[in-house]
Amino acid sequence: MCKLxxxxxxxLGLAFAAPALAQDAAPKITIFKSPQCGCCExxxxxxxxxxxxxxxKPTHDLAALxxxxxxxxxxxxxxxxxxxxxxxxxxxxxxxxxxxLSERPPIKGITLPGMPxxxxxxxxxxxxxxTVYEVxxxxxxxxxxxxxxx
Length: 150
Ligand SMILES: [Cu+2]
Description:
By secondary structure, the protein is of the alpha/beta class. Helix content is 35%, strand content 22%.
């Protein structure tokens, strides 16, 4: 009896411990960037500071990788992140990134094209709202839909 109880207590303890452990696990993101890109490093640091576990992979094939991820040339950001089955291209603000990860929309990812001043990892002052586009929702010829403006 006593043994059974302590076993139950142990099992219960494990059941409680497991979710805590899962919460502690930082979301993992892999960022592909050209070896020379400095603002990409800044963005990686920005995500690290925001609790992400970042792996940076230098590559000379960023445009091709981004295309493979479903992002057409004119909507590509300066680096490509892969997280939890989603593509995250460019200097996407963390609020929008976290929203996608929790909502899990049926798209391939999100992208902030170009390198807007004042976005995370970029220098300068923000001069206009950032428009983050969906990846993989626009169909073959259609322009991608807007995921967030902030
Ligand atoms: Cu950049």
